[in-house]
Structures are given as C-alpha cells and as structure tokens.
Amino acid sequence: MDKAASQSGLTLSDLSVYRRSGEKLLQVNAHVLPGRTLTIMGPSGIGKSTLLAAITGTLSPDFRCSGSVRLNDRELMQVPPEKRRLGILFQDHLLFPHFSVAQNLAFGLPPRTKHRRARVEQALEDIDLKGFASRDPASLSGGQRARVALMRMLLSEPEALLLDEAFSRLDQDLRARMRRLVFAKAEQAQLPVIMVTHDQEDAEAAAGDILRFPPPLAT
Amino acid sequence: MPETDHPRMGRPTKGPAFFPTLTLLFLLGPVLAGLLGTLLPSFGLLRPSGAAAFSLEPWTALAEWPGLARSLWLSLKTGVIATLIAFVLAVLLVAGWQGTRWFKVAHGLLSPLLSLPHTAAALGLAFLIAPSGWVARLMSPWATGWNRPPDILVLNDPGGWSLIFGLVLKELPFLLLMLIATLPQLQVRDRTNVATALGYGAVLGWCLTVLPGAYRQTRLPVYAVLAYAISNVDMALILGPTAPPVLSIQILNAMNDPDLGLRAPAAAAALLQLVLVLVALIIWKAGEVAGATCVQALLWRGARGNSLAFRALKPIGLSTVTATAVLLFSGLLAHFLWSVTGRWRFPDVLPQSFKTRTWDRAGEDLLFTGFTTVSLAFLVAVVALALVIGCLETEHRRGRAMGTGGVLILYIPLILPQISFLPGLQILLLLAGVNHGIWPVAVAHLVFVLPYVFLTLAGPFRAWDRRLATVASALGHSQQSILWRVKLPMMLAPILIAIAIGMAVSVGQYLPTLLASGGRVETLTTEAIALASGGNRREIGVWAITLTFAAWIPFLFAYALPALMFRNRKGMTNG
Ligand SMILES: Nc1ncnc2c1ncn2[C@@H]1O[C@H](COP(=O)(O)OP(=O)(O)O)[C@@H](O)[C@H]1O
Ligand SMILES: [Mg+2]
C-alpha cells in the first residue's frame, strides 16, 4: 500500500464490484503508469462497464463496490464523481444533443478557465473541425462525433482516461485513426488509461498489460 | 459481502426524501382529511352546530331521501355501461385497425379531444341532441315533419342514456390513447403476424395475443374512468336525469342547501357513493374474469374469428370512433356558431344572422374569469411540476424506482370519487376558517393535477440515458449542474407537455373549485356549468369555446416552443 501510494498513476487495489445480492462480478488489482494503458477484455455482461462506473463513482445502486482506487496519491473512493478528474469515453460518444458542438466543448472546460472561446476554437482546430463551432452535434459523422467527445474530455483536464468500448462503433479505418489519436493524446498528457474492449486489435495497439475475464485457466 | 461499503457517488444515500414526502402530503393529505371530514359528520360528529355525539341519525335521514334507491341504480348503471361501451369500442378500433392509415387518422383526430374539458364536451353534446339541436335540425322537417322543436325528453332523460352517451364520447379518446400507449412494449406486429399466419382474424387474433398484456397496463386508467363515470358531477349536471338525479348530484344539492341539517346525511351519502364505486369495481373485476374466460373458451373451441359477426366488428370499431370525433368536434362548432348567432330559427341548419354582441357583453367578465382560470391552472401545474421533478430526481439519485405501490398511490385521487371526499374537505376548511380565496382551490386542484403530471414525466425521465450523467460528472459537473444544464433542457418537450396536461386538468375541474372555495372562486368551468341550467345558448357557446381554448392553448406552446428553440438540434426532435 505504501509503495503504491508513493507512485503516480492509477492504482486499483482489490477493487471489486458486487451485485446488491452480494454476488461478486469482478475483482481487479492493477497499477497503470502515466502514459500506459491497461486493457480489460471479457465477454459482455461480465461487469466491465460496472467496474468503470465504480472507478468514476457513478455506480448504479443495484451494485456495490469495495477496495480502493488511487490516482496520483489521491484516494478516490470517498471523492464525489465530479471531483475525481477522470475522463470517460463511451462507444456512443454521448454528445449533449441540446448543445452546439462548441457548447459541448465548453461544457468540459473547468470553471475558472480563462479565454474560454479561444480555448474552444483552438480545440476545434486540434481535431480538424475548424468552423464546426455552431453545428448541431446530430449533424456530425460518427468519426467527427468521436473526436468532439474526446476533445471535450481532454478539455476537462482529466488525470486518467477510461475507455468503455470507445471505438467499437467506428468502422475499421476510422477506428485505427481514432485509436492512434487517443493514445497519442494520453501519451502526450502522460495519462494512465484503462481500456475496455472486445477487439484484439485495440488491445495490441495499446501495447500494455491485458486483463482477461474470466482469467484463462492455468495450464 | 463487501467488507467496506462505500457510499455511492461520495454522498449519503439515506436521509429524508424531501420531495417524495412533500408530494405524498399534497397528494393524500387533502384526500385523507376529506374522507375524515366525510366520515365524522356521517356518524353525528363534527356538526356545524358544534354538538357532537355518535349517532346513526344521518344514515336514517339519508334512507328517507326521495328516490335514493333509484339514484343509486342510475349511478351504477350509467357508469358501468358507459365504461364498458367505451372500452369495447377502444379495443375494437385498436384490434381491427392498428398499423393502418385509418388508425393514424383516428388517433390524430382523438388526441386533441383528450384534453377537451368534460364540461365543454357535455355542453356540446347537449347542443347536438337537444330537441332543438343540430341533429333534429338536420332531419327536419323533411324526415321528421317537425316545424318546431318537438316536446320530447332527449337530454336529461330519466333512464340516463344521454349521460351514458356523453360519458362514452368523452372517455373513449382517453381509453384509446391509454391502450395505444401500451403497444410499443408488446411486440404487437410479431404477435399479430403469428396470429394471422395461424389463420386468425384481426380482431380475435389481437384479443388473444395482445389484449391480455395491454389490459394489464391499462387497468388503472380503466378503473379511474369507471369511478369517474359513476360519481361525476359535471357531466351529470348537464346530461344526467333530474328526477331523481344520480347520487352525486343528490349529494351536491344537499351540500349546497341552505339547510345545514342536510350536511350530515349528505356526508353519509358521500360514503355511500364510495361504497358504490367499490361495488362497481367488484362488478368490473367479475367482468374481467368473465371476459378472460370467454376469450379462453373461443381459443379452445378453435374459433379463428373469421365469421361474418367477427368481421363486422372491424368496421364498427372504426366508424364509432370516427363518429365520436365528429360528434365532439361538431359540438364545438355548434358552440362557436351559437356564440356568434343573431337569429337561428328552428329547423334551419345554420343561423340566419350573426352578431358579436354575446362576446361583447361577456367581455370583461369573460376576460377576468378566463385570466383567473388560466393563472390558477398555471400556478398549480408549475407547483406539480416542481414536486414531480423533485421526486423523479430523487429516484434517479437513489436509483430506486417507485414500485407498483407508488403507482397505486398516484391513482388514489383518480379512483376515489371526488364527491366522497371533497364535501368533507369543504367542511374542514369551513371549520378552520380558511375556505376563502384561491389557495384552498389551488391545493384541491393539485391533488388531481399531480398524478397526471407524474405519469406524463415518469416515462421520459426514467428513459433518460444515465451515461449522460456519468459523462457530465466526469467532466466535473455536480448533480445540481447536471440537472439544470443537461437533464432539464433535454426534457423541455415532455416538461411543457406535462404543464399543458396539468393545466388542462386544472381548467376542467368543477367540484374541487366549487367546494374548496365555497362557490366564491369562479372559473370558466364553474361559470359554464352555472349557465347550462339557464339555457341561454349564445352565452353557453361563448363560455364553452373560451373554456376549450383555455385547455388547448397551453398545448400549442408545448409543441411550438421546443420546435422553435431546438430547430437546429435534430437530436432533440425525436426523443
Ligand atoms: N442498472 C443495472 N441493474 C441491474 N443489473 C444491471 C444493470 N446494468 C447492468 N446490469 C447487469 O450487470 C451485469 C454487468 O453489466 P456490465 O457491467 O454492463 O457488463 P459489461 O460491460 O461487461 O458488458 C450484466 O449481467 C448486466 O445485465
Ligand atoms: Mg459494457
């Protein structure tokens, strides 16, 4: 514990999620270094999304969790979700439909950010969407939406990244590009990443540790 | 079990649930107080004179009311028959036509009629079927030979048939839309396709494969309709028999009588009305069993429902539902014509001359009453909205949806007859000396507005994608910020619809307005009903049209505003 506490990165110690009935879904012990990726794979319904919800602090009351989550020396379990500084991406990108593209990005900026408009303009340029500020998110292509969701998350200055099958709705070509973009940004900001995926290629591209559920039988 | 149990979202999940408690208080407080205020006087307690001793005297006095037995029978008969007819017709339409273009047309026609106030519907029907009404005019003199209005009793007939007619017209749209609302969850197309492939006719196939599931979900609305049909005052005052009237009218007359001695037997009668509704519900339950047995019997006999009799059911469904819409709209048109009529001789189908004097004369009065009505409705709807959003947000944060018990509680004010507890509430308000002004009326309206607002918003709020909250909180936003900046804006359309529905419910209330204010707060509904007995058709027309628009205009805003505000947001228009 002391050793983990002195490390930067994201540390899950005996993090377990249970159904309310008490049945245990998953238990994870892991340490993810800044800029590295932990890949979690397993059949659907096994509890991967639930595990990520335990990390973000948005676990539905149908579940419980125990164990600890440490992020750069902060213990997160008692911290409300909006103060945890974790970014999460889902496969549906989940842009807010009532906001414009720019408003979606501005929604991610921390409260005391200066020059908010300029920051949003710059962010749009970064993801090759210059001129898209006032667009309706529903009018974007899947790839564009994914980029906006990624940028919105990065603008909130997270200290770690969680990806819940974030690439699975994109077609092959787009998927590879989006993956490179996400990992490049994580590397650049030195963020630890936990990626949940079904896709072997995703796992290979991440080039980090892989946790498989259920664990392969020991031979 | 986990050793450490971390609080979810870093917040305590226990503690007083402020909004649900307050909502429950506003929903059931007046009902329970009213029941108590009915129960005590009916056993000799809580008398206006101050004397109080347990006695059965109110009941013996009640037993001597003229025509009591006949009143009881009339209430039961009109209520059960009207509900049965409306329900069967609704089923026939959905079973025979669902998925067709005709069905869409019928649906579109009936939707606005759902929020047509009962009073306006009843007055409209009265305009049509009165001896000098439109129907008689259309048939005279060529078919009937009448050159002057015949002296026959169509309205207020002693058998209560015009009341039944009016109840069917008004409740058919409601039951139909309730039935339609259950369909998306029932894989209707798959089920009926299987039935068709097995050789079943449309109506029987639907009744065998879809109806059981659909009925399970419409049961409570059906009970509410049944209870209303048996115990309503507004439609019965306009269309119902008079000598004797249905029980609810007898109670109302006794409550309004200057002789305070009639209050105690009236309270006893109000309890009797409650028993009558329970009896009707038991009869209906028995009918459910009988109906299910019939359907089962058809199944085992191998009936396919292709016989002529079954095939005839299909056109009956469509034609009666269309006729319902046509009649209700014609009633409104008749209101409007009368409101601008100068001279309109019998058997002419249209007025000879027009004038706006009736409107001019009603002018200020109409404006003031209309303003009172609409602002009261808006106030009540917004309070209901705040309570309901508070409840649904509490539910969301605790992750516990209210169970079937909660839904039952919502239906209590809709199933308990108004006439059984509002007189008691009036007695209590009188004793407490707070029977003045708009506030007691607002509280009484809230009881009936809350359930509709809740039932309207619960679906969209519960269907809201929780992951949006996860994303927003990961972006650093608190639960308050998520509620105000994400969830509520996304819910704008259902919220405005809920306000419009709540306002329509409030605008249409007769008894709560009358009793909670001791007759001192006048709304468009109470005025229209007061005019009904006078028989000045021009004035009735003016007030009924205004009443209808007071109930409808909020829907215009509810549909137009989100379309306008989110005209550039495609993601907001289809959900
Ligand atoms: N809100 C919920 N209430 C109850 N059970 C749920 C809820 N959400 C998911 N589940 C169940 O919990 C299990 C884990 O779900 P999830 O974490 O989404 O799995 P995964 O992401 O691995 O596919 C599944 O069996 C799923 O059916
Ligand atoms: Mg999942």
Beta strand % of chain A: 15-25%
Note poorly predicted spans of chain B: 1-13
Q: Sketch the topology of chain A as an H/E string, one letter per element.
A: HEEEHEEEHHHEHEHE
Number of helices of chain A: 7
CATH architectural grouping of chain B: Orthogonal Bundle
Main sheet summary of chain A: 5 strands, parallel
Task: Please tell me what the overall shape of chain A is.
Answer: globular
Instruction: Assign the CATH architecture of the domain at 1-81 and 193-219 in chain A.
Output: 3-Layer(aba) Sandwich
What letter string, H or E per element, gives the SSE order of chain B? HHHHHHHHHHHHHHHHHHHHHHHH
User: What is the SS-derived class of chain B?
Assistant: mainly alpha
Coarse morphology of chain B: globular
Q: How far is the first residue's CA from the last residue's CA of chain A? A: 31 Å
CATH-assigned fold name of the domain at 1-81 and 193-219 in chain A: Rossmann fold
In whole angstroms, how far apart are the ends of chain B?
Answer: 40 Å
Please tell me the total number of domains of chain B.
1
- SS summary, helix count of chain B: 24
If you average the pLDDT of chain B, what whole number results?
90
| CATH class label of chain B | Mainly Alpha
The tally of beta strands of chain B, per DSSP, is 0
Protein name (chain A): Sulfate/thiosulfate import ATP-binding protein CysA
InterPro entries (chain A): AAA+_ATPase (IPR003593), ABC_SmlMolc_Importer (IPR050093), ABC_transporter-like_ATP-bd (IPR003439), P-loop_NTPase (IPR027417)
GO molecular function (chain A): ATP binding; ATP hydrolysis activity
Pfam families (chain A): ABC_tran (PF00005)
